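Posting for a labmate who doesn't have an account.
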Amino acid sequence: MPLYGPEFAEDPAGVYARLRAAEGPLAAVELYPGATATLAIGYHAALEVLRTPETFSKDPRRWKGLADGRVTPDNPAVPMMAYRPNCLFSDGDTHARLRGAVTDSLDRIDPNALRDYVERACDRLIDGFAGHGEADLVADYARPLPLLVFNELFGSPEHFGDRLVRGMTGIFDGIDAERANQELTEVLLELVALKRANPDSDVTSWLMAHQAGLNDEEMLHHLVLLMGAGTEPQLNLISNTLRLLLSDDRFAGDLAGGSLPVEDALDEVLWTDPPMANYAVHFPVRDVELAGVRLPEGEPVVISFAAANTDPALAGSPRTGNRAHLAWSAGPHACPAQSHARLIASVAVERLLDRLPDVELAVKADELTWRPGPFHRALAELPVRFPPATVTTQIAVPAAARPAASGNAPAVPAPPGSDDASGDPAWNPTAAPSASTPAVVTSTGRPAGSTRTGRWPRWSSLVAWLRGR
């Protein structure tokens, strides 16, 4: 069963259902032409792979298809699956050393300052289209926002933005992926050299200063990993959640469940439309049998987070407030930045609905199109309309246009960091190196200072309750 092309992108749930009916919890798939794998679509089979590193290795140097030439180096699957010296593609002591550098560096992010930065970035992006009465929330909002956050957190110069977008988008979409990977490598090597010469208070500098002693190659590939995890999946989480809130009346401000509708919508998306639909590639260290299926040594096993989360075996389990989904993976390689990702997404969604309370889809929900690709669940665009609104910040940021398939992405808006006209402090005042801060909680309440320019009737009672009115 091929997992590329528009047919799969339009109806992945139907594909998963047919695979489950024909083959059970493990199914043979083709990720791209010539790149085959076993897809774990059963929840319990997926957990078995994720939680048994002694049997299922993350090291792609075991990938027999790539080693024997069945998969060519220019295959679009290679940039997403081939070996890189980072914590995602390592096991045992090496994994512990490399992951420790990542988690310790991410733990130094101040969640309150991060929230403040994201809110200001959201406002500036919204100001770029608020007066127009219409927007594409993918190109104008959900795509540039994670890149602005990445640039700020990692100390990346704003003029790197175009190249970062082209590189990462090409890899995820499988469009000239080999060239996209090369462009991403070049720009991140420049960032490593910049921070070696001028360390600062940012995640890149903290990774360098960590006692794990990452060399330049390890630095490069951890930045690729963090860039990949922090931009495309974050874009998809934001846009998929906005799509759900704008098309499904179940998430229209009902407080009966005792939790924020935005948080409920995030949970629903993470269950049913996770931003990374299929990934977490593993390689059996020997021939092994799982769920009655023989898995050959060195042949990739891909976890379908989307299919496992909707496994009929889980039927009847409530989703609201239930975070037993696999959207963040599980086991020793579970996402170390899930609290940060959730905070960014929730702030982005709440801020948009706060600023544009009458926003609605400009097309029917079933007319929306999805970007093809075996790994992600990504809207091509999210057109909306709303009554034109006034801007709230002093400097309006122009809308970031759509990165075309040819890679002609225009400049990304300058991030509103510590050197902007407002004179606000940097997102994290701690100078590197320093001790790590404690990990943050998954969800953070909306602060009292949110700006509102109008009322969306379905959200009015929620906002009033949150603000104590």
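Reply:
Got it, the structure tokens are right above this. The radius of gyration is 22 Å.
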